[in-house]
Specification:
This protein is mainly alpha-helical. The chain starts with a helix and ends with a helix. The protein is built from 12 helices and no strands.
Length: about 375
């Protein structure tokens, strides 16, 4: 059962990210130069393959219990982010992801950008746009492949599943020759978020020393229960008024303070955010766009090494911790309590991690809704 759920999670997550990356590549190739755009795709895939090849075997050397805590914690924090965004979309408090709108925006940006040749690439803008899109969208997939594959001892199978999803999207994009807007991305993201959270709860509690009542079959209770809770929260939030627009335009994620300057205006791929099209503080980006015509352009300034390191650190903070550090802290505390109870011989400590996850979800959503 674990293997089947693993493959489904990897396939759906990769399918979602591949669709978003395909939109960026289509815009770059259509508006600019297909050879340069496809070169960027190839370079991005090589980097992602290297990440899996290098970190996959390295992570496998970590003792299993420690690996379960580490992977479970990351998946739980990661999955809860996906669930929060999916719930906000489904309840009308966050704009739905719209590939057609994203494609039009990226196409317009690519057409208006100046072109130059670098390192033998005829159109550097098309190359970097495709490269960043593939790399940033693919980082999530690489993370899921490496973590899921190592926990289950199925790294190769997880990698091949992700590759199959990429090939499927690539073939569909070639046939359609346009954004794959008919793919139910919003629903798929909802499902992936629930599955990531479920596996994070299961493996994290197990690594902390808890014993699940029916072993692996507990996932058959955890995942459906999370789905029911998420749908119940959606129904509650739908009763609250919302100002969300009907369609989302992708923008760089800026939930980490100061990260908005990491990607220059007009040159950011739609896939720059952890969950494309879901910039939690997109107001800053909209403000930049609205004032672009009235503010004289500033000369580009050189980025210092310290500033570059800061942006790099903030990117990974946003990638792993996301929009609410309190959730990550609560997850870590639940693991510590579970480990303390298990080591002291107290039975039934398995309930601590799922209870904390279920409690933090509406609390974090409440904060996000108030901010909006």
């Amino acid at each position: 059962m674990n293997t089947t759920a693993l493959l489904l999670s990897v396939f759906l997550a990769c399918l979602v990210e591949a669709v978003e990356a395909a939109t960026i590549v289509l815009a770059a190739g259509t508006a600019r130069d297909w050879r340069s755009a496809l070169s960027g795709v190839g370079a991005g895939l090589v980097v992602l393959a290297a990440v899996v090849i290098v970190f996959g075997p390295a992570i496998a050397l970590i003792p299993l219990d420690i690996l379960r805590i580490f992977v479970g914690g990351l998946l739980l924090v990661f999955g809860l982010q996906w669930m929060r965004k999916a719930i906000l979309r489904a309840s009308g408090h966050k704009a739905l992801h719209d590939e057609d709108e994203i494609y039009r925006r990226e196409l317009a940006s690519a057409q208006s950008a100046s072109g130059e040749s670098r390192f033998g690439v005829s159109d550097w803008y098309a190359f970097t746009l495709s490269f960043k899109g593939v790399l940033l969208e693919g980082l999530e997939v690489a993370f899921i492949v490496v973590t899921f594959g190592n926990i289950q001892g199925q790294l190769g199978l997880a990698a091949w599943t992700a590759a199959a999803a990429v090939v499927l999207v690539a073939v569909a994009a070639i046939i359609v020759r346009g954004p794959l807007s008919r793919v139910p991305e919003n629903t798929m993201k909802f499902i992936v978020g629930i599955m990531l959270t479920g596996f994070g709860i299961f493996w994290g509690a197990e690594g902390a020393g808890a014993v699940w009542p029916v072993a692996d079959l507990s996932l058959l209770v955890i995942i459906p229960a999370l789905a029911v809770i998420a749908l119940a929260i959606v129904l509650v939030l739908r009763r609250r008024p919302s100002e969300a627009t009907p369609a989302a335009v992708s923008a760089p994620s800026q939930s980490a303070p100061g990260f908005s300057g990491a990607i220059p205006d007009g040159g950011s791929p739609a896939g720059a955010s952890l969950d494309s099209g879901d910039a939690e503080t997109g107001a800053a980006t909209r403000t930049r766009t609205a004032t672009a015509g009235t503010t004289p352009p500033k000369a580009p300034r050189k980025t210092s090494v310290i500033e570059s390191l800061k942006r790099f650190g903030l990117f990974w903070y946003d990638f792993i911790i996301g929009d609410d550090w309190r959730v990550a802290l609560a997850v870590a505390a639940s693991f510590a309590v579970t480990a303390a109870l298990s080591s002291s011989g107290v039975g039934g400590s398995w309930w601590v991690v799922p209870a904390v996850a279920v409690l933090t979800l509406p609390m974090a959503l409440s904060r996000l809704v108030r901010k909006s």
